[in-house]
Amino acid sequence: MALPQKVRIVEVGPRDGLQNEKLVLGTDDKFHYISLLQGAGLQTIEVTSFVKPPAIPQMRDAVELFTMVKEGLGLNKTNFPCLVPNMYGYEKAKDLGVKEIALFSATSDSFTKKNVNASVDETFERMEEVAQAAKKDGIRMRGYISTAFGCPYEGKIEVSKLISVAERFLKLGVYEVSVGDTIGVAVPGQVRNTLKDFLKSVPLEKTAMHFHDTRGMAITNILISLEAGVSVYDSSSGGIGGCPYAKGATGNVATEDVWYLMQSLGIETGVDIKKLAEASAFILGKFQRQTESKFLKAYQSTGKV
Ligand code: MG
Description:
Strand order of the largest sheet: 2-1-10-9-8-5-4-3
CATH architecture: Alpha-Beta Barrel
Radius of gyration: 18 Å
Distance between the termini: 28 Å
Mean pLDDT: 95
Low-confidence stretches: none
Number of domains: 1
Helix content: 40-55%
Structural class: alpha/beta
CATH topology: TIM Barrel
CATH superfamily: Aldolase class I
Shape: globular
Number of helices: 12
Bound molecules: magnesium ion
CATH class: Alpha Beta
Number of strands: 10
């Protein structure tokens, strides 16, 4: 299959990236980061998560932050989805005028039990109510599937299990499922074989991939996914983020690395690398941290692509 000419990057830095950081940033800083990301040309930026306080300290300013984004950046030019775990979060999101929500589950009960204290079945029961309301209110939904390629507790995951979770999401009415390698264990052969089966059941245009670079395979896995035709990729600027329930699961693949791969293949992203690197420098500076992205490191030191 010919590679896509254009991809959509779903920037998850402000939510997935910041979520597990112990240092809680000020709302102004988060807003500034999001505005820099928007300025870099990212079309979809996940803003926050409407969890019940005090579940995730970093997300306790969700209402305030989304209000700033809505008023300061507007909701028309950029897609600003928010994670919604339950009806509590849904009501908050709806009241604020959120246009797209992200729902989440996983392929394994052990993972969802640790993560949200519910089995996979129970997560879908909870989401059913949210999905019904969202459909009625005209709010778009996207579904995250965690541990798609492997679970920290159950090991390797059968493709049939992954497909059945994806199908349940489609039944809920999501426009897209994001297939997440939460603990960064996916390898290219596995991704190729998985997608071969997966895309027989899930439409290509409803498929997105979410890789973590824990073992250095994220970009290779994205190339394999491109070859299968997938044209939507989740990533975080500077590669920030991890997973609190998965030991050693370092960051999301860096948006800069995704950009570099796409640029090398002549695939359009709409992203301005100089501005993106500035957004990453800002957020990494807040945590006084170096990026995990090899491309970004080289770019920072040479100023050249
Ligand atoms: Mg992630």
